[in-house]
Amino acid sequence: MRLHRNYKSPLIVIITLVIIFSVGCGRSTSANGDDYYVITPPTQAAPDGEDQPEASQAPPEENPDAASARYQLDDPDIVELMQSRSHAIPLYEAAQLFYYLDKSFDKDNGAIWGIPLHAPIMFYDLETLELVANRPDPDGILEQVGGLYLGILPNDLMLFDGVVSYLNFGGERWIMSPWASVDGLNMSFELSTLSHKAFHWHQPAFLGELRLSDNSHMNEIEARISIRLEINALITALRRGGDAGLAAINDALAIRAERRRIFDRKAEENSFELIEGLAHYIEWSFELEREGNVLGTQLIDAYRMYTDGVVRGDNLERMYGYVSGSLYAFLLDEADPSWMQEVTGNSDLGTMLKDAIGITTLPQIDDIDLEQYGYTVIAAQERTWARERDSVIEQIKESLANDPLLKFSYDHVEIEGWTIHGQWFTFPNFGGVSRGNSQLIGNFGSLSVTNGDLILSDIEGAFMIVVFDIEIEDGWASGSNWVLELNDGFGVERDGKDFIVKRT
Questions:
Q1: Which pLDDT score, from 0 to 100, does residue 51 have?
Q2: What does 85-117 look like in DSSP terms, one character per residue?
Q3: Predicted local confidence at residue 82, as pLDDT
Q4: Is 337 in the same domain as 249?
Q5: DSSP annotation string for 327-376
Q6: How many CB atoms lie within 10 A of CB 471?
Q7: N-terminal to C-terminal alpha carbon distance within the chain
Q8: pLDDT of 185
Q9: How confident is residue 9, by pLDDT bands cut at 50, 70 and 90?
């Protein structure tokens, strides 16, 4: 089978687009016996006949550690606050999460990446504007309560519901996480996700200010088949090891080289793998540490199941780099334990692995048995996906031609962020569409779309949505599945069948 050239999508220009995805995995208990699930405040009695869970108590005084010095989980000030007034963010649960995260970073002490990954983290609640932080801010805005720092979010700090941001607060760059994004999850999942975000916080210091580039070629059927085969070959290499594993690495690198020859997107792919692949590698590394630092068959199979879920369907363009980048990192661990000291913002993880192993010649694509990596099944799935995507493209084209649109032209507004909860489609010679729930934020105000299409058009230089039953009032507009809240100085004007958000 030879990959053949298909059409190549244009560069999608997205101004200050914020699309952040949290991925992770959960376990039942950690290797050292700590329970990462039960969270019971010191003031709450355990059920009759049961002992108080160890994880809900402060570490014994005879075994102090750096994390326990920062977070005294039974601090009387925290207990008093819990009893005296209601908090949208449970203080004890936040303190316990900060404690275990710092405990992981203290234990690692830079062993995984060379530097400790402690970072300033702030949980916030968008309804009450409460925030809880793990350290003081330089400007002294936050109030210390025990090992926590409490405050109220400033009105001018623009945040998203359900998305982690990296913003300046009190003179320092913070990881800003909505409490709703971790509330109700098991502790192991939360810790893995926050370690991913902590790595992102440190990433500019050793990789520079990397930016996610256009990877729209991953909506081409041959590129999609190729990346899935490459990932399966990498997982096979981890599972088999030895000569069989080396053969699978050769196959993965050959598949990678052929795709990059056809689509010429080496730089874009490298950037994605460095940004999200390495962060995902850190996330799984801390998960492995809790499991005893063994990348065994069970965990590899779990990773395979996870991979099958994230690289299929409409989200492959936005997700493949998490998987391929982290797999190359794990294989580099085995080939060259010092590889992290050599990686830069211009690195190619595949080339690094090739050099570390000493591979000089790759097999020809036609000489590889692609069936061992699932070619027939993957190709059938991708042909079905392509037909469904083509149907969506036709629906969007029909709506653009015939239905009224609400437009946010870059000539009139500045887009500051965009969150996506749903599917993402990139259209050749057009742009992209978020199908599901979306939020658009800018100097104009905010737009929330529920179960609809938010369209980015490169051709028109605008975001837009199809609008029915539109109602326009001073300061807002709405329809059957969307609400637009406008800042002062902006309004909605009619333009033929369409409507445009403009400065008034």
A1: 38
A2: S--SS-HHHHHHHHHHHHHHHHHHTTTTTSS--
A3: 56
A4: yes
A5: HHHHHHHHH-TTGGGT--TT--HHHHHHHHHT---PPPGGGS-GGGGTHH
A6: 9
A7: 58
A8: 76
A9: very low
- DSSP character for 317? H
- In the predicted model, what is the mean pLDDT of the chain? 79
Please state the domain count of the chain: 3
Give 186-249 as a DSSP string.
Answer: -HHHHHHHHHHHHHHHHHHHHH-S------GGGGSHHHHHHHHHHHHHHHHHHHH-HHHHHHHH
Same domain, 254 and 310: yes
Q: Which residue has the higher pLDDT, 186 or 153?
A: 153
Angle (CA) 239-31-201 rounded to 5° is: 80
- Signed CA dihedral, 27, 29, 30, 36: sign only: positive
Which is nearest to 259 in space by CA: 141, 365, 154, 345? 365
Which residue carries 């437009």 as its tokens?
407
Contact (Cβ atoms closer than 8 angstroms) between residue 479 and residue 469: yes
Q: Range of 173's domain?
A: 54-207
Q: What is the pLDDT of residue 421?
A: 79
Q: Span 281-303, mean pLDDT?
A: 70
**Chain center to CA of 395:** 29
DSSP per-residue codes, 111-138: TTTSS-----EEEE-TTT-EEEESS--T
Tell me: do 105 and 197 sit in the same domain: yes
Pure H helices in 241-315? 242-263, 266-272, 278-290, 297-310
Burial of 360 by CB count in 10 Å (0-12 exposed, 13-18 middle, 19+ buried)? exposed
Indicate the residue among 207, 240, 274 that finishes a domain: 207
The tokens describing 2, both together, are 């030879």
**Length of the chain, in residues:** 504
Helix (H, G, I), strand (E, B) or coil at 472: strand
Classify residue 433 by its DSSP letter: E
Q: Cα–Cα distance between 220 and 222 in angstroms, integer?
A: 6
d(CA 1, CA 96): 53
